[in-house]
Amino acid sequence: MKKLQYTINNKKINHYHFNTINSTQIYAKSQIQNFAPNEINIFSADVQTNGIGQHNREWRSSNEPLDLTATYGFLLDKKFTKSRNLIPHVAVCSVVDLLLSEKIESKIKWVNDVLIDKKKICGVLTESLSDVSNLLYNGYDGVFVGIGLNVNSSFDFIGTLKNNSTSMKIEAKKNQPEVKKNFDVEQLLMKLTSIFLNNLDELFSSGFDKFRNKINSKLERFDNQNVLFKKMDGNDYVGRIKEIGEGGDLIMVDENGEIESFIGGRLQYCV
Ligand code: BTN
Fold first, then answer.
1. Quick check: helix, strand or coil at residue 246?
2. Ligand 1 pocket, 86 CB below 6 A?
3. How many beta carbons lie within 10 A of that of residue 74, not counting itself?
4. Could you say which of 80, 146, 217, 228 would form a disulfide bridge with 268 (CB–CB 3.0 to 4.6 Å)?
């Protein structure tokens, strides 16, 4: 493990990089007692042997050439608890901005995914720990934002994944077929960190409006077709995606024109 310390956007960053680890997310959560307020901890890895995704799924990345797998872990003052549910939204917006900086257009699948032509390029897993008994600091929650971004994955590797995925390299090659070189994952992580920390500051100081507008302009609405939505109570809902509400909720409309809003649940593909 390599430990680096540096400053980005006036924030002290403790960056732990592993050649191989089971999961940066699991490790980050085990380190919460070492976190300090106003510091950001980044846990990144070349290879994860047990990467975890949303809904207890596995997260697989390419080992050679590399993809980006990292978890941001930090303490969040409980006075910001109301904004905590909006951190996944801000994280996906940050990935969309990162991709745009590399001239790659993408869309947001509410709430945790970034897609290109309906293929997944990035997934975000946000978790929080409250009332941790061994936490040195009172009045804080632990927040963990895991980001898996397909950077240099090849078609071969992607072909082995069950879900429909793509990578930055695959997308960049569509515009410039002659480009052979891989993206520099370390540089991308630095850029992402700067964008993400800026965006988090904006969320806490100015609110969600700007991000809501951005998400609505980039929202994958699946051609306004009906999609299947698994509600939190396990029941199915079928409707079209309308927009994101003020609280980051997903607003959908069913075949009778009735509008419903969801704060949790899982969006599935076209029916
Ligand atoms: C998803 O299912 O779409 C979310 C995937 C999140 C994967 C990242 S990779 C870094 C961090 N470590 C993990 O084990 N998972 C997250």
1. coil
2. no
3. 24
4. 228
| 117: CB partners within 8 A, 6+ apart | 166
The preferred substitution site among 22, 69, 119, 121 for testing ligand 1, maximizing ligand atoms within 8 Å of CB, is 69
Q: Does residue 71 line the site of ligand 1, with CB under 6 A?
A: yes
pLDDT at 163: 60
The ligand 1 atom nearest the CA atom of 48 = 14
Tokens of 174: 């569509």
94-152 pLDDT per residue, tens? 999 999 999 999 999 999 999 999 999 999 999 999 877 666 778 899 999 999 999 99
Phi, psi of 130 (to 5 degrees): -110, 160
Atom of ligand 1 nearest to the CA of 24: 12
Strands ordered across the beta sheet of 227-230: 259-262, 250-253, 236-244, 227-230, 266-270
DSSP code, position 58:
B
The 10s digit of each residue's pLDDT in 178-206 is: 877 899 999 999 999 999 999 999 999 99
Q: What are the tens digits of pLDDT across the range 222-253?
A: 999 999 999 999 999 999 999 999 999 999 99
**C-alpha span between 126 and 93 (Å, rounded):** 14
What integer pLDDT is reported at residue 181 of this predicted model? 86
Q: Taking the model in full, what pTM does it have? A: 0.96
CA nearest ligand 1 atom 11, residue = 146
Cβ contacts of residue 109 below 8 Å, gap of 6+?
Answer: 115, 120, 220, 267
Tell me the C-alpha distance between 5 and 13, whole Å. Answer: 6
Ligand 1 center from residue 134 Cα (angstroms): 25
